[in-house]
Structures are given as C-alpha cells and as structure tokens.
Amino acid sequence: MYPFNQAVESLLEIAHRCAQKGWLPATSGNLSVRLNGHPLSMAITRSGCDKACLKTEDIIVVDERMQVMSGYAGKPSAETSVHVGLYEKFPDIACILHVHTIFNNLLSERYFSISEGTGHISFAQHELLKALGHWEEKASINIPIVPNYANLERLGQAVTEAAYRDVPGVLVHRHGIYAYGESPEAALRHLEAFEFLFEYHWRLNQAASS
Ligand SMILES: CSC[C@@H](O)[C@@H](O)C(=O)COP(=O)(O)O
Ligand SMILES: [Zn+2]
C-alpha cells in the first residue's frame, strides 16, 4: 500500500529507467502501483500517453471497477483489466509493470503454439533466477505465454489465470510482458531479470546455430 505521491515518484523513476533501455517504444507499456487493498485502488498510467517521458499528470487513480476516482481526469490504460486481475489474485503485490521489448516479443513468438493457444519458456540453474526469488540449488521456472486477445477483458482473465505467485511475470504472444512484485523496486528487479534472461537465451541460441 503506497500513498499517491510516493506511487507517482516510483512510477516516474521506473518509466525513465525502462525508457532508457528502449522498453517503452511508441507509447506502449503501462505501469501501476497499488494504493489500497480493500477496496482496490491503484495509480496507473493514462492510456496513450508517451511513457518514455511520463509526467505526474499522466498518472491517474482508478478503483476495482476501473472507474477513474474523483480528483483525477483522463482515460486509464486500455489494459487496466490486467492490472485489476493480478492485484485481486495476489493481495501482496504492489506494483505491475508492462513493457514491449524486442527480446520478450521474440521469445513469445518462439515458444508459443498458435494451434494450442498456449506456451511457456523455461529457465533452469541460472544465477539471475535469484533475482526472481529462486535461491534453491537447482532452480527452474516456467514463464507462461498467453494469446494476445483483442478483447481486453479476456486478456485480463488470461494473464490472471496463467500467473503464478512464485514466477512474477506473464508473457503475451507478440505483445510484451507483465511483471509484478511486492513493491515497485521488486517489480523492477523482476522485470530486469526477465529481460536479461530473454536476451541471454536468444543470443545463446543464435550463437549455437551460427
Ligand atoms: C501503442 S501500442 C501498445 C498498446 O496497444 C498497449 O499494448 C499498451 O501497452 C499501451 O496501452 P495504454 O492504453 O497506453 O496503456
Ligand atoms: Zn501493451
């Protein structure tokens, strides 16, 4: 649970850091911080704004029905349903970060079966799994990949159903990743670890096949 001013400060800092890495191209991405648990409210980015130069006025507050709360104006992220679903499923998470990157898109393509409408990518025994909370000796994780439904209610349901609490991210086919954590710092750490693993995996496979 975070006060609005602190949520804004974290979101601006995270957006700046992600933008420097090229993870928020062409106004893509949406970011949120939970303000309250019961009833749910969150600070979330405005739909369509350029998150690469996110400003305080681009962050608005919505409730669990995705209604903008009084005192705030504008249209919340088109993908607010995904944020609502994840916050409701995992009461202890406080931040959700959605970005579109080249490597998360490449792997969402490589490990998704269009005919089956599902997929996952596995990582095992890699040091950076510790940044995702997996300190065990022979750690392994599966990151789920869901279809990129045009119906955003359905997308929200698909991401929420596929999400595990101990693997803090879900890929969306040819779209991007939703990463989450118990604080803004944890969500960013998870996002950076996922993106490191994706790039590493892609480059390793490229090197092996050349
Ligand atoms: C501009 S393409 C990306 C959008 O379609 C969407 O996937 C996205 O990430 C941003 O949507 P937004 O409504 O601004 O939160
Ligand atoms: Zn998106």
Automatic annotation (TrEMBL):
UniProt binding sites for Zn(2+): H98, H100
E.C. number(s) listed in UniProt: 4.2.1.109
Domain Class II aldolase/adducin N-terminal: 9-202
A GO CC annotation given for this chain: cytosol
InterPro entries: Aldolase_class_II_sugar_metab, Aldolase_II/adducin_N, Aldolase_II/adducin_N_sf, MethylthioRu-1-P_deHdtase_MtnB
Broad EC category: lyase
Keyword Metal-binding on entry: yes
Pathway: Amino-acid biosynthesis; L-methionine biosynthesis via salvage pathway; L-methionine from S-methyl-5-thio-alpha-D-ribose 1-phosphate: step 2/6
Free-text cofactor note: Binds 1 zinc ion per subunit.
Keywords: Amino-acid biosynthesis, Lyase, Metal-binding, Methionine biosynthesis, Zinc
Signal peptide as annotated in the record: none
Swiss-Prot/TrEMBL GO biological process terms: L-methionine salvage from methylthioadenosine; pentose catabolic process
UniProt GO MF annotations: aldehyde-lyase activity; methylthioribulose 1-phosphate dehydratase activity; zinc ion binding
Catalyzed reactions per annotation: 5-(methylsulfanyl)-D-ribulose 1-phosphate = 5-methylsulfanyl-2,3-dioxopentyl phosphate + H2O
Cofactor: Zn(2+)
Entry-linked Pfam families: Aldolase_II
Function: Catalyzes the dehydration of methylthioribulose-1-phosphate (MTRu-1-P) into 2,3-diketo-5-methylthiopentyl-1-phosphate (DK-MTP-1-P).
HAMAP family per UniProt: Salvage_MtnB
Family: Belongs to the aldolase class II family. MtnB subfamily.
Protein name (Swiss-Prot/TrEMBL): Methylthioribulose-1-phosphate dehydratase
Native source species: Alicyclobacillus tolerans
Gene name tied to this protein: mtnB
